[in-house]
Design a protein that fits this description.
Layout (H helix, E strand, L loop, with lengths): L8 H14 L3 E4 L14 E4 L6 E5 L4 E5 L4 H9 L3 E2 L20 H7 L6 H4 L6 E8 L4 E5 L11 H5 L7 E9 L1 E2 L3 E8 L3 H12 L7 E5 L8 E8 L1 H14 L6 E3 L2 H13 L9 E5 L5 H8 L5 E5 L4 E5 L4 H10 L3 E6 L2 H6 L8 H14 L21
Parallel strand pairs: 1-2
Antiparallel strand pairs: 3-4, 4-8, 5-9, 6-7, 6-8, 10-12, 10-13, 11-12, 14-16, 14-17, 15-16
């Protein structure tokens, strides 16, 4: 089926209305950086690249409005030129699947809820989405939120759209809160800790007055030593004082080293982009309470799993070529859930990308989606084994 490529809200409404009349499902796609996630689906591609570009940027007000298909690589230099940033630290997942970098769009990032190590201190993508414009599965153009950094009345639709994976509406425009870049930053590292020691050290740091911006753990491979990382940022006198505090506080876990700027940048890039787990093995994203990270690693590492920790252990990335149901049971036992991010097509065909929901929650999610998409235009079967079982009403 040829792709649809609308470039105006009216054209997008017409395309969705026609798909609903014909009983065709639409796969929303911008840069395609996550196209290899989830099961293959028999759907027509809704190419959103016509909705790209910087619409409005007001640095003094810390507000940016862009087309949903604007590449991240166009947004970051623009903000950096004004000494500002997207504080939730979005990143391009394309290389995880062997694709070229620089394809991720801001709409796809927000729809997938992607955030980097700074999520620990600065919040998720949904916390920085002020407003949006979109077209629902009813082929109706609608807006949510506002272009101001203040509370608005009504339903908090931006939080509903962020992380919805395009199963509610096709985003055309986003308004995001931006923040000033920190004046300075520092990264401290402790080498040689095992997963339990690392998780304890990160928990200790987070519970202190050191105001940790990010905390992660890279296990050693081959001749490399394991590294437990702590990032601090802010005004220089404050960072200097908090570094001294943290060094003294973490002395019981080992000697703390301050990394050079280049080495620190490379370490955090490895964490953010999951580069140590590159390859063809199935890749899982396990979200759990941080205290559960050692439990997950202890269950799966003896079976060959490779891993790293972000968000002080709240996010475990796993490369594991074993039983998918074991991963999901292990995540549940640790109080969390597991998403299948990368896998061969045959595995993705039989294992749902998203962790199965309890029946009550699955029914509630379905009812919310039906409000916005009663005909199931965006229900491609890509994300969940429950989609095709749901009754449209």
């Amino acid at each position: 089926m040829p792709d649809l490529a609308p470039a105006t809200p009216d054209a997008l409404c017409d395309a969705i209305a026609e798909a609903a009349r014909e009983g065709i499902c639409l796969e929303i796609r911008g840069g395609g950086s996550k196209a290899a996630m989830g099961a293959a689906c028999n759907a027509k591609v809704l190419d959103m690249r016509g909705f790209a570009g910087i619409i409005d940027y007001d640095p003094p007000e810390l507000v940016l409005t862009v087309g949903a298909a604007t590449p991240l690589v166009e947004i970051e230099p623009l903000l950096a030129g004004q000494n500002q940033m997207l504080a939730f630290e979005p990143w391009d997942p394309g290389p995880l699947f062997g694709n070229a970098e620089k394809s991720a769009t801001i709409g796809g990032i927000v729809a997938a809820g992607l955030a980097g190590p700074r999520r620990l201190s600065m919040g998720a993508a949904r916390d920085h989405l002020l407003g949006f414009k979109a077209v629902s599965g009813r082929a109706q153009f609608f807006t949510g939120g506002a272009k101001v950094v203040k509370n608005v009345t009504g339903y908090d639709l931006p939080k509903l759209l962020a992380g919805s994976w395009g199963r509610i509406a096709a985003l055309t425009e986003l308004t995001l809160k931006v923040l000033p870049l920190p004046e300075t930053h520092a990264t401290l590292a402790i080498e040689g800790l095992n997963v339990r020691q690392a998780q304890a050290a990160m928990a200790h740091a987070l519970g202190s007055r050191a105001e940790i911006a990010a905390a992660a753990h890279l296990p050693g491979h081959g001749t490399s030593q394991a590294q437990t990382l702590f990032r601090l940022h802010g005004f220089e006198p404050s960072v200097k004082a908090r570094v001294s505090m943290l060094v003294a506080m973490l002395a019981e876990y080992g000697m703390t080293e301050k990394l050079g700027e280049t080495e620190a940048a490379a370490a955090w890039q490895s964490v953010r982009e999951v580069t140590p787990l590159a390859g063809s093995w199935p890749l899982w994203r396990v979200n759990i309470p941080p205290s559960g990270a050692p439990q997950v690693v202890a269950a799966l590492e003896p079976l060959g799993a490779r891993w790293l920790l972000d968000w002080a252990g709240g996010l475990v990335w796993l490369a594991f070529d074993g039983d998918p149901m074991l991963v999901r049971r292990t995540a549940e036992q640790a109080g969390g859930h597991a998403m299948l991010v990368r896998a061969p097509a045959e595995l993705r065909a039989g294992v749902a990308m998203q962790h199965p929901r309890p029946p009550g929650l699955a029914a509630l999610e379905a009812r919310v989606r039906r409000v916005f998409d009663p005909s199931g235009v965006f229900e491609t079967g890509r994300f969940s084994d429950q989609e095709k079982q749901e009754v449209l009403f």
